[in-house]
Amino acid sequence: MMLLDNIGFVANMMSFVVYFSSVMHFDITGAATNTTNYLGTAFLLTILGGFISDAYMTRLNTALFFGILQLLGYLLLIIQSHFQKLQPQPCGESTCVHGGKALLLYTSVYLTALGAGGIRGCIPALGADQFEQNDSKKNSKNISSFFNWFLLSITIGASIGVTVVVWVSTNVGWDKGFIISIVCCFAGLCFVSMGKPFYRVRVPGESPLLRVLQVLVAAARNWNIVFHIPNNSGKLFIVLDKAAVQLEGTNKQGKWRLCTVTQVEEVKILTRMMPILLSTTIMNTCLAQLQTISVQEGTLMDPSLGKFDVPSASIPVIPLVFMSLLIPIYEFLFVPVMRMFTGHPTGITHLQRVGVGLVLSAISMAIAGAVEVKRKNEFNHHNHRTSLFWLSFHYAIFGIADMFTLVGLMEFFYSEAPAGMRSLSTSFSFLSLSIGYYLSSAFVELINSITSKFTSNKQGWLQGRDMNKNHVELFYWFLAILSLLNFGNYVFWDNWYKYKKDGPVDKQKLLHPDFSVTMSMTSQQAISTSDGERKTEQN
Question: For the packed helices 317-329 and 392-416, what is the interaxial angle rounded to 10 degrees?
Answer without folding.
Answer: 50
